[in-house]
Design goal:
The complex is a heterodimer of chains A (281) and B (299). With 281 residues, chain A is mostly helical. Chain A has a domain at 63-230: MetI-like (MetI-like fold, Orthogonal Bundle). Chain A contains 11 helices and 2 strands; from the N terminus they run H-H-E-E-H-H-H-H-H-H-H-H-H. Chain A has a two-stranded antiparallel sheet with strand order 1-2. In chain A, helix 3 runs parallel beside helix 6 (133-157). Chain B has 299 residues and is mainly α. Chain B has 2 domains: 6-41; 45-295, MetI-like (MetI-like fold). Helices cover 74% and strands 1% of the residues of chain B. The longest helix of chain B has 36 residues, at 6-41. Chain B is globular. Chain B starts with 5 loop residues before the first helix and ends with a helix. Classes of the chains: A mainly alpha (281), B mainly alpha (299). Chains A and B meet through helix 1, helix 3, helix 4, helix 5 and helix 6 of A and helix 1, helix 4, helix 5, helix 6 and helix 7 of B.
Amino acid sequence: MKRQWIQRLGFALLTLAALVVVAPILLVIGSVVVQGVGAISWEFLTTMPRSGMKEGGILPAIAGTLVLTLGTALAAIPVGVGGAIYLAEYARDTWLTRAIRLAIINLAGIPSVVYGLFGLGLFVLFLQLGTSIVAGSLTLAIMTLPVIISAAEEALRAVPVEFRTVSASLGGTRWQGIRHIVLPQALPGIITGVILGLLRAAGETAPIMFTVAAFYLPRVPTALSDETMALPYHLYVISTQVPGMPLSVQYGTALVLLMVILSLNLVATLMRGYFRRRRPW
Amino acid sequence: MRAPGRRARWFEFAIESFIRVMGFSTIAFVLLILFFLLREGAPILFEVPLDNLLGVRWYPTFDLFGTIPLFLGSALVTVTAIAIALPLGVATAVFVREVAPRWAREVLKPLIEILAGIPSVVLGFFGMTLIAPAMRQALGIPTGLTAFTGALLLAYMALPTIISVADDALDAVPKSYRDAALAMGATQWQTIWRVVVPAARSGIVTAVMLGLGRAIGETMAVMMVTGNAARLPLTLDSLVRPVRTMTATVAAEMGEVAQGSPHYHALFGIGIILFLVTLAINLTAAVTIFKKRRRGGLR
């Protein structure tokens, strides 16, 4: 009988732990939504900030984050997917392959602020790109690589090996097999991985602080060599650097950022679930 | 599919070379990162004597670059965070895998993924506006921006990593272990507590390592809620006083330094320390994972 009570107590503690983990997540999202929704208006989303960012909208920050995310995608997708194809389809188990895997693990573990330093050292100063959208996007792209490579490799490996043998038996070359058979099958998984990587890039602050982000620049970026405002950095600025900032503007900005991230997250989750159920083999 | 002609064969060669280069690029990036950190950071070793760098006072305006308080600040916040996140994370992983009804699992997993995706600046903002004031009132301290506030946020940022790795470790425990324990008359709880969790022990150690690596490099949230006072966190009340971490120092000061000054080099020097610490942590974790894979599963 005593054992049953201990079991009940144990399970209760485990349930409690799960609740303690989950409750704050709901609290964060809930409080940002409740307090931020009042600030959201058409004007907030589509106009320039005014009177020291205390009034007006956050359009340049939204535009900046979109442009940076797009730039990151352009730079990271070819390298990430190419790297994944190499690891999944070409690489043999040699010391070199193991070195690549260690490099990926290492890249995934490097602190975001160190990426910022690296971007400053290489892109901004050494390559003389200046604080610019190119420099910021390239920095973010390298940071996102491990996420994209890992997810894409997993998606490629999930395609049964028979698909490749059949393609080869019909006289297809290795690349033809990959291009026409394997890649289309793995595409949903790859896209999910890319979205998860970009979502991380879109929310990061530290890597863009020294490479692209502008404190206050009330215009939409027009060239790759422009500095730009960006949502995460803007939230940091208005919540710590500007005294007397109305709380509603801060919560509104946090809400917009959170919505960008959560909607990307939702798309990735739905895609993964949908294609997992529909997988034809 | 047509048999490849000469042009197609050339194209195939080009594309395969491209793929190969992309494959090796990750190694190049790691080396590039290390090179540029050293290039901008190493000069500090020649500009400032070592006993200054290893001193206990970080006042760059007075040319005092003692990294010890920053290092200890990072250590204090990170270790406290893991002390909070480890029991919570492992318990949640056990709950999700062994106890939870299906519907609870379907709710928990996506929520934890969402937590992993919330930008650290949003968590920092939340910590500043809600947790810090609450902490100040509850503990009656002069400011809520303390090491503990930072550790609390960091714990939640490390949780998704810890939960997912611990979950893999539990998954790798063979079903026969469970069956054997249950067959001997153990309750479900005894099976979990005495058999499954101990069998997953080394996977859980890996979870802690990766959580540590994640926590020590976290920047924005920590910078926004720890108060950023570069004091030596050696007294008993350090947890409820402001503290300053290595990451926060770099992020806060890099914008204001003159390029090429000793201060600038010192900040890159901190970057080198961060790089090496996370490298060591992640390689250790990776080696255990590689070893376990060969023996079959994360046990």
